[in-house]
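Last lecture ended with a question: if I hand you only a sequence, what can you say about the shape of the protein? Today we answer it with a concrete record. The protein is FHA domain-containing protein. Below, first the input exactly as provided, then the predicted structure, then a couple of comments.
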Amino acid sequence: MIDRQAPGTNGSGGFDLRLLGPAELRIDDRVVPLGGTIPTGVLAYLALNRERAVPTEVLADRLAKGKEADPPDVHVAIWKLRQALSAQSVRHEDILVNTRGSGFRLVLDESCCDVFRFRAARAAANDAVAAGEYRKAAELYRRALREGRGTPLSNLPDFNFIFGERSQLENDLQACLEARIDADIETDPRTELIGELTALTHDEVMQVRERLWAQLATVQYLNARQADALTTLRRARAILGEVEGIDPGPELVELERKIHQREPLRPQRIRPIHMPTTVARDAAQTSGRLQLDDGTTFLVSKPVFTIGRHPDNDLELDDAQASREHAKILQSAIGLIIRDLDSTNGVFVDDKRINQTATIKDKTVIRIGTTSMVFHQD
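The predicted structure:
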């Protein structure tokens, strides 16, 4: 197993694969050219499936760009990776292991990849939370967050695996940030947190995370700013309704009641965050059936399930208002997600037009063009 001071990597920098931002391999703090986006994508996917053999045909499917695209030549990509490693005096046969018919796996020490360093620091922070050591937990969460460098895998094209994996990694980072803020509130709900949380709740991506609104209102109330806290919760209700089409959850509702009635409010008891350590999926959470109005059903169990008017889609729609490639359903860390492929007439989920993506669950009603369908969870 290679470590960060791997033999043959010359110097003190060692071997470092970075995925929490642009995907890149660094050796001795120098970016190593890997021969293009496909070899880089292969390395990233194998790393996210660390220590597990990935069949060649699965690897080719994950590195394709949509159903209609020809799969890449995985063996050429592997050859380019080995050439790149050999040029850096790294023994590629110790890292990229051919399992003789079962595919390829990446043998990689956790210290050699930012994803696994992030997860290790986060796990240590969770242990500190469990022990009631909130100041220590906050510092460990900060250490984990320092591994992030922007949008995960941001320099890779729209390979089939990208959207689900990027969503998982982004969710991991966002949840870790919330846990760090929880630990800071538990330690000292200082007014400086109000500015940070105000900025976060104005961010287009983060503003739909209810926990941030609860944290902001909590800190405001603990700093004797009841009116501001109630204004924050009213704004949260408006934004969640406008953007997500949902009402606030029980946590926000109960918090609003307590603040309105001026009840004593301790910082919310924080919970260790637990995220999957691999990209293994629970099949029950990433499969189901789409049922059309005429009763026809289509099994959704692939990493990418396409819908549109073109006959090559997994679900071909005889609908003049549907685009040729209208939408796709993808597996992700939070379940199944439907994505609008820049269609002309949009995708509607439970009668609300989605803004690019939306999660789907049991009995979700999807409308594409004039065609309605219901998703049934297996």
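Comments.
1. Residues 65 and 159 are 5 Å apart (CA to CA).
2. DSSP finds ten helices and 16 strands in the chain.
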